[in-house]
Design goal:
Length: 324
């Protein structure tokens, strides 16, 4: 079974679509820092140093197949994805802007409905944007700014640390999409309180690295974190919390409404898990960081290599590419 899972994750579109990123980042290497950039490409948001902390800046686009089939959900997810990116860095979001391209004018109000639902749910204002009417295709991209006093990154996982997953397994799969909806049925206060746990983890120095689980799925997201940190890991798939109703392979590819990977010193693991469990979020140790640059996975008595970063790439970005 493990061999099948490894093949499925390696070939999953959510992972393979990340491969072209390396080519683009090298194109901007001469212009990604004019004195304030701490992190440019390769993390959930860019990080700029300010006098009183850090400014966080990110953007996300929505898959066209989601736009075509459910514009309302696409609008909601566009907000959710950006908000999660800021919290994954240990920050709080300040505001959003959007760029919409509309082919069918009937879809515009539906997209806006979804965006407004997301803004209300996560308590983040939409303050501007740009509209392309009468286009050949429909697309939605949203950008976000946030602030942090202490930053979690994708570049600072170190050997010996525990790998934790904090994930809300309550909720339901949204239609046939690989989206696990764990936020739309909860109050804004509850949703934000859970996200604030990550800010507390950052500000108290409990963890060094964090990444929100997104389109590559849980294992693909861990792979991205290992790649950028230039480390390896062993992951125990049996230890991963998941909803009983979902098949394992499906859950491993799912984009959860609330799902984050963190790394911390083992002596801080109980502190991190305690913050999340207090808010009703499952948090579990699912692996350990090592210096092998290989992502090994276990399932029962089976063991295999999912990624070997001496030859494999997901984004191709490593910490040696950082401006800092």
């Amino acid at each position: 079974m493990l061999e099948t899972i490894i093949k499925s994750i390696r070939e999953y579109e959510g992972v393979t679509r990340k491969n072209p990123i390396k080519t683009l980042t090298t194109c901007f290497s001469e212009v990604d820092d004019f004195g304030h950039t701490e992190i440019s490409f390769g993390d959930d948001s860019a990080v700029l140093k300010t006098d009183d902390g850090y400014l966080l800046f990110a953007a996300d686009g929505i898959w066209s197949k989601l736009m075509d089939r459910d514009p309302v959900w696409a609008g909601y997810c566009a907000v959710l994805a950006n908000v999660n990116d800021i919290y994954a860095m240990g920050g709080r979001p300040l505001a959003l802007t959007n760029v919409m391209s509309i082919k069918d004018e009937k879809n515009c109000p539906r997209i806006i409905e979804g965006i407004c639902r997301g803004c209300t749910k996560f308590k983040v204002p939409m303050v501007g944007g740009h509209l392309h009417p009468n286009t050949q295709t429909e697309s939605l991209s949203i950008s976000i700014i946030g602030k942090a006093t202490r930053v979690l990154t994708s570049f600072d996982a170190t050997p010996g640390q525990d790998i934790l997953v904090a994930v809300d397994t309550t909720g339901e799969q949204h239609d046939e999409f690989l989206n696990w909806d764990s936020t739309s049925m909860k109050s804004p206060d509850e949703v934000v309180a859970r996200l604030d746990c990550i800010v507390e983890v950052a500000e108290k120095g409990y963890a060094t690295a964090c990444k929100d689980i997104s389109n590559p799925g849980l294992l693909g997201t861990i792979g991205m974190l290992l790649e950028t940190s230039e480390v390896g890991a062993t992951i125990d798939i049996d230890a991963i919390p998941r909803p009983e109703a979902l098949e394992l392979d499906t859950w491993l590819k799912m984009y959860p409404g609330f799902g984050f990977i963190l790394t911390c010193d083992p002596k801080r693991t109980s502190d991190v898990c305690g913050l999340f469990t207090k808010q009703g979020v499952e948090c579990a140790v699912i692996g350990t960081i090592n210096d092998s640059k290989r992502m090994e996975v276990t399932l029962g008595d089976e063991r295999g290599v999912l990624f070997d970063f001496s030859k494999d790439i997901i984004t191709g970005i490593t910490k040696r590419m950082l401006p800092r």
